Amino acid sequence: MRTYLLKLGSASVLALMMMSPVHAGGNKVTGADYANGKSVFENGKGDVPACNSCHGATGLGDDNLGTPRLAGQLYQFLYKQLDDYANDRRQDTAMYVMNANAKGLSEADRRDVAAYLNSLGRTFKGKQLQVASGGSDIAALKEMGTEVGQAYVGKIMVYYGVPERDIPSCYSCHGFNGRGVEPMYPRIGEQKLTYLVAQLKKFRDGERKNDPMAQMRKVAEKLTDEDILNVATYLTQAPPTTLGNTQVPPEHLP
Fold first, then answer.
1. Do domains 18-119 and 138-252 have the same CATH topology?
2. Is the peptide bond before 239 cis (omega within 30 degrees of 0)?
3. Domain coordinates of the chain in residue numbers?
4. Do residues 229 and 149 touch, judged by C-beta distance below 8 A?
5. Tens digits of per-residue pLDDT, 183-230?
6. What is residue 132's predicted lDDT score, i.e. its pLDDT?
7. What is the pLDDT of residue 11?
8. Centroid of chain to Cα 41
9. Neighbours of 162 (CB within 10 A)
10. For residue 2, what pLDDT is reported?
11. For the chain, which ranges sit under pLDDT 50?
């Protein structure tokens, strides 16, 4: 299915690749000023506040604020989202600040902070990793009264989809456990649960429309609230490796 979708969207993929310098895992983004990106993230710039004030000191997001994990996200995806906010192709309905913040940054600033954020969150180089790091604490969320799903049911949907309901697997586009596939399918594994739930519902209800070829809207429109909770509950805890292969593929290392 992913092969078909990639062929169908070749023009969109090409546009994304031309819009921003493509980088392979393990390599730095060509032309990016990482020091500037770090400064924007930690200190802000001009009237734009520091990114870490909402997304956390290490870019892991905040379930209480509804902000996503940015650390380790695909560079191309991060840059596209900032560009979409700056040009009002996407509306921030969580903190209501991203459109103004993105407009307050230059194109170079947006590239730099996207590159810097992509480099975060993969500090385990050379180490074994069989558990998720940086996702949501499901037990803590339940204790606070946040509704969560059943991870084992979500895992089945992530891996296999629901063929009888014409729902494809998350794996088919976003890769194993949602590790992300450059240049256009973002990392959704280890993402914050509240953010995943909110965005899937926005795609389903047509409130978010900046997905290439409306792929996410077409998938999400088939999901129930229960489906969304189950998938999000699994993904936020999904490790990037397996018991049979504990080495993270090179393309997923900074």
1. yes
2. no
3. 18-119, 138-252
4. yes
5. 999 999 999 999 999 999 999 999 999 999 999 999 999 999 999 999
6. 67
7. 44
8. 17
9. 14
10. 46
11. 1-20, 24-25, 123-128
pTM of the model: 0.87
DSSP symbols for the chain: -HHHHHHHTHHHHHHHHHHS----TTSPPTT--HHHHHHHHHH-BTTBPPTHHHH-TTS--BTTTTBPP-TT--HHHHHHHHHHHHTTSS---SSS-HHHHHHTS-HHHHHHHHHHHHHSS-TTTTS---S--SS--HHHHHHTT-----HHHHHHHHHH-BGGGTB--SHHHH-GGG--BTTTB---TT--HHHHHHHHHHHHHTS---SGGGHHHHHHTT--HHHHHHHHHHHTT--SS-SS--SPPGGG--
Superfamily of domain 18-119: Cytochrome c-like domain (1.10.760.10)
* pLDDT computed for residue 244 by the predictor: 74
pLDDT in the model for residue 14: 41
In the CATH hierarchy, which fold is given to the domain comprising 138-252?
Cytochrome Bc1 Complex; Chain D, domain 2 (1.10.760)
